Amino acid sequence: MTEERTRGRLIRGVGGLYTVRDEAGAEYTLRARGKFRREGLSPLVGDRVLFTPGKGEAHGWLEEILPRSSRLVRPPAANVSLLVIVLAAEPAPDWLLADRLLVYAGQSGFDALLCVNKHDLDPALLPRVRRQYAPSGFSVLGVSALTGEGIAPLRERMRGEICCMAGQSAVGKSTLLNALCGLRLKTGELSKIRRGRHTTRHAELLEADGLTVLDTPGFSLLKLDAALAPECLQNFYPEFLGRGGCRFLPCLHDREPGCAVRAAVAAGDIDEDRYERYRVLLSEVREAWKGRYRSNGG
Fold first, then answer.
1. How far is residue 248's CA from residue 213's CA, in Å, rounded to a whole number?
2. According to DSSP H, which parts of the chain are helical?
3. Are 218 and 168 spatial neighbours (Cβ–Cβ below 8 Å)?
4. For residue range 179-196, what is the model confidence (pLDDT) as tens digits?
């Protein structure tokens, strides 16, 4: 007689052992069936799964991965629906990383918002972020994990989502999670060279106070998908869309004469710094696209 399988969500995976939480909140330690390896499937944190609980002290078995709504490649995770991109005054914002993450969210099929932490350290940073990203329509929230400012609106936006916090090390992601969820995650301090030290080693799905958040290592080495065609990068810049009138089609909005996006930048309708970073990413995407064909012998 086949044992009845239980439905749950994978919240942690380390060393071939997977921790799954069932719908009642109980946690189980499991191993994956050999079929996953044979089929080239890897269970990911965030996966909805079917499993067979173990008996006594024996581990149970992960039996089936249910269909995913989204998948992150780095860090490996599934079913994320909201990416919270955290910036702070210290360390100095990596604006290019923030833009990469927004493109990454668009490619992966989930929403994104920008969260300016440590707002009390530099009140000028929040208006600057809003000025750059207002034309794009992305939400920008200012918070301080230390004072509690802005925590309630951020918590409300995250409720009902499977969230992932991303950004440079030491921008305060773990401190924010502590404030949002009443947790006691380890937090790091800025190193002497003002770069962050990673304090999160493995992806883990945290559930507390009605929030579900993926706590992950930093995204500081994120690269865009090499399969992204140069003409498609602009699709992830909402402020570029709907601006008809470019002289040449397709227009990459780079150096082409008669470009409507460049005209909007000149008119102040699109932030110039964000546009220049778009050109940096466009150059990277072009190189990666050429390399893709070279590696295929083209």
1. 44
2. 34-38, 95-108, 125-133, 151-158, 173-181, 260-266, 272-295
3. yes
4. 888 765 554 433 332 333
